[in-house]
Amino acid sequence: MRPMLMAFLTLLVALASPVQAAEQTTVLVTGANRGLGLEYARQFAAKGYRVIGTARDPQGATELAEVAARVEALDVADTASVAALAQRLKDVPIDILVNNAGMFDRSDVSIDKVDFAVMEQTFQVNTFGPLRVTQALLPNLRLGQRKQIVNMSSQLGSVQNSDGRWYAYRASKSALNQFNKILSVELGPEGFVCVVLHPGWVRTDMGGAAATYSPEESVSGLIGVIEQLDSGKNGGYFDLKGNTLPW
Ligand SMILES: NC(=O)c1ccc[n+]([C@@H]2O[C@H](COP(=O)([O-])OP(=O)(O)OC[C@H]3O[C@@H](n4cnc5c(N)ncnc54)[C@H](OP(=O)(O)O)[C@@H]3O)[C@@H](O)[C@H]2O)c1
To answer: Left (φ > 0), alpha (ψ -120 to 50) or beta: where does 9 sit?
Structure first.
């Protein structure tokens, strides 16, 4: 299809869909039992969104259960777990998918410390995980109105800004950025908006106590960015304040 015609059709789809009320909006957040995922679940729920939160151990996700409409088991690194989730959610429309689950093993500070088992696990969770979940839940997202895919990346995934260390984590997020770009090109013509977001340095188990932002501050900024998403932002790489980051 010609680019001009494609842009015109995308615009028509956007104009035909009025902004959806929070109460009618379903958001699925992965890794929602603690950290930024739990805070996403809390803030989306407080705004009236219908939250489906996933956890590797749903029984232990007691704080999540207090705010989410539905808690589902999910290990994003496990193909069978992802397929089982898709089966349980068959025909359930999902408006916004937040691929938040992630891991950061900081041991690979130099080439001699690179452990390929850690490298593989990091990619399984941070990179293949979001793509695997997106692939499995695409039918649900196609049934949803907003068609937004939010991939939690990091500024550490920026190649341009890299100052070294952490081979696995940085590369896993750079590759996630590329996956997001490819998805945005493929799904944009259907009205999807796919973005990678950097939450800032946040005081979670991953970020540690010395980090800049509280989870509340970070997620409030991130949800502000998500609520402002439109087709012009498809494929973008933004921080919690909506600034574009260099690739
Ligand atoms: N905190 C920061 O400063 C910061 C900065 C930049 C980017 N980020 C990104 O933001 C996201 C959230 O980070 P966070 O700070 O909230 O991390 P966190 O406190 O360490 O929480 C990580 C979450 O991911 C889940 N998870 C890990 N492996 C998983 C798997 N295989 N399947 C499903 N869930 C899994 C954890 O579940 P369990 O409880 O079962 O382990 C937990 O819910 C991550 O993608 C991270 O890379 C964070």
So the answer is: alpha
Phi/psi for 27 (5° steps) reads -120, 130
Which residue's CA is the closest to the ligand 1 atom numbered 10?
A: 152
Q: What is the mean pLDDT of each run of 10 residues along the chain (247 residues)?
A: 60 56 94 99 98 98 98 98 98 98 98 98 99 98 98 98 98 98 98 99 98 98 98 98 98
Q: What topology does CATH give the domain 26-239?
A: Rossmann fold (3.40.50)
Backbone angles phi, psi at 15, to 5 degrees: -70, -30
Q: Residue 180 burial (CB < 10 Å; 0-12/13-18/19+)?
A: buried
**Ligand 1: residues within 6 Å at CB?**
30-31, 33-37, 56-57, 74-77, 100-104, 125, 152, 154, 198-199, 201-202, 204-207, 211
Give me ligand 1 centre to Cα 3, in Å.
Answer: 38
